[in-house]
Specification:
CATH architecture of the largest domain: 2-Layer Sandwich
Number of helices: 20
CATH class of the largest domain: Alpha Beta
CATH topology of the largest domain: Beta-Lactamase
Distance between the termini: 67 Å
Largest sheet: 7 strands, antiparallel
Strand content: 5-15%
CATH superfamily of the largest domain: GAF domain
């Protein structure tokens, strides 16, 4: 039989006592240990664990554990926060939902995160905990050796966990900032987490780190970069790896429809709103409620619609065409553009207030020519996918083909590379990809740096730009990093045509 939840009055008194006790703790370690102890004792569970997201939101760290009445030493176990397969912790985190299992089966569920004990674990309750900004900060977990219905404890444990996390954040704000030496010691190495994307270059690792910051934070994101750099893929990655992954991901290209059609498509309309409106139509904001709406080519949105979009971002309200009433929606906006929106604002083509609202968290995608080390990696990936789609044997690469691809400028970026590879596989008859299958020189010969001096100048320019961008345009710091006198760096910047706008 299932174990019974204790009497409400006694349980409420115990919960209040625990909250009052945690409020008086002035040490972070004691706060965390007290939190897991309270969770275990209130639920009558043998195990309680607290997992917190790291600063990059890409790792879950076991921060505190209470096992069989004993406080366990703080563990350094760390797990990826992305959901891939049947991991219970990542499922609970990314779905942002309470997970309760009365009949835990090791043959069906991956339970490696639970400590090994003589008795098997029978019941499990795992729930996300959030801070004051309603951002998911981690997970609180309870497990029992008995078959027990732990679902009834979910609301009270959420209150307990949320209170503990907010107390922890308050303590961190009150602590003095660490010294520069301590900060250098505490900085974690950047992990290459692709989120379904391909690339190991430094510029892509920087993109992965930015993606990790917004996975579990419901802020608007502005993706910028040249055409073909993969902005929609990044938008998919943010949605699929974040807390809204179980909800709709809706895409609308703002340049593909005229103004009146785009407005009715986004906001919907009521029957009789205009000629031909013979029924109510739900807009994309309603279709993406609790999910994500990806607005591609936001720079081409008409000014009149920009004002309505700004209201949705500010108030979370939508008013369909032909309706006097507004209603609330909870939609995460991810916008993308290849335009320079700041320049469009100055020309009066884009609303300044909307620009600042959208650009709270910009992510700039690098062009393929600035991530040369990823070209062959992407090319091999596209060849494998194309061969699998065509159900043909894998293709080999000739050395001349690899060299030609590595030297090509790719003005169309990743989209162009994908198209060239798919065409080459279709032309390839003897399972070996040759330079003539790609036809790079005839396609854009003027864009290909075949001369050694031009090629070296391009590499040097990208190298200097990377250093200047890492140092936020500080030329003295960049010169020290490169081992150059500052005057030499200035001379090379002038020779290579590097301006402050490029940085």
């Amino acid at each position: 039989m299932l174990a019974q939840v204790p009497q409400p009055l006694c349980y409420a008194e115990g919960l209040l006592q625990r909250l009052a006790g945690l409020a008086q703790v002035n040490n972070a370690d004691n706060l965390l240990s007290g939190l897991v102890e309270a969770a275990a004792e209130l639920t009558g569970s043998a195990l309680s664990q607290l997992y917190l997201l790291d600063s990059t939101h890409t790792r879950l760290t076991l921060t505190a554990e209470w096992l069989d009445g004993l406080q366990q030493p703080q563990a350094a176990d760390s797990l990826p926060s992305d959901y891939d397969g049947e991991q219970l912790l990542q499922y609970c985190l990314c779905q942002n939902r309470v997970l309760s299992l009365n009949e835990l089966d090791n043959s069906l569920h991956q339970t490696e995160f639970l400590p090994a004990t003589q008795q098997p674990w029978r019941s499990l309750l795992c729930l996300p905990i959030v801070d004051k900004q309603q951002h998911v900060s981690g997970l609180l977990l309870c497990a029992s050796h008995q078959t027990q219905d732990l679902q009834g404890f979910a609301d009270s444990l959420s209150l307990l966990g949320n209170f503990g996390v907010n107390q922890l954040q308050l303590m961190h704000r009150l602590l003095p900032p660490p010294s520069e030496v301590q900060q250098q010691v505490q900085v974690e190495p950047i992990r290459t987490s692709g989120y379904g994307l391909i690339g190991n270059s430094q510029s892509m690792r920087d993109v992965y780190q930015l993606i990790g910051k917004v996975l579990h934070n419901p802020v608007s994101v502005l993706l910028t970069g040249e055409t073909g750099t993969g902005k929609e893929l990044v938008a998919h990655a943010i949605h699929n790896c974040g807390s809204r992954r179980s909800m709709n991901f809706v895409v609308q290209n703002c340049a593909s429809l005229p103004e009146h059609l785009l407005e009715s498509e986004l906001f919907g309309y009521r029957k009789g709103a205009f000629t031909g409106a013979d029924r109510d139509h739900k807009g994309l904001f309603d279709a993406a409620d609790n999910g994500t709406l990806f607005l591609d080519e936001i720079g081409d949105m008409p000014l009149s619609l920009q004002a309505k979009l700004l209201r949705v971002l500010q108030e979370g309200e939508v008013r369909p065409l032909g309706c006097n009433d507004t209603h609330k929606v909870d939609v995460r906006i991810i916008a993308a553009t290849h335009h320079d929106l700041q320049s469009q604002v100055e020309k009066g083509l884009f609303r300044e207030d909307l620009f600042y609202r959208l650009s709270h968290f910009p992510i700039e995608l690098p062009p393929l020519r600035e991530r040369n080390e990823d070209i062959l990696l992407l090319a091999r990936h596209f060849v494998e996918n194309t061969c699998e789609f065509l159900q043909r044997s894998p293709c080999r690469w000739s050395e001349e083909t690899l060299a030609a691809l590595a030297q090509y400028n790719f003005p169309g970026n990743v989209r162009q590379l994908k198209g060239l590879v798919e065409r080459a596989v279709l032309l390839c008859e003897d399972d070996e990809l040759l330079p003539e299958h790609f036809n790079l020189n005839r396609e854009t010969a003027s864009d290909t740096a075949t001369h050694l001096r031009e090629r070296m100048a391009k590499v040097e320019r990208n190298f200097l730009l990377d250093s200047l961008r890492r140092n936020r345009g500080n030329q003295s710091k960049a010169a020290r990093e490169l081992g150059l006198p500052r005057r030499t760096l200035l001379y090379r910047m002038e020779r290579l045509g590097i301006s402050p706008d490029d940085i």
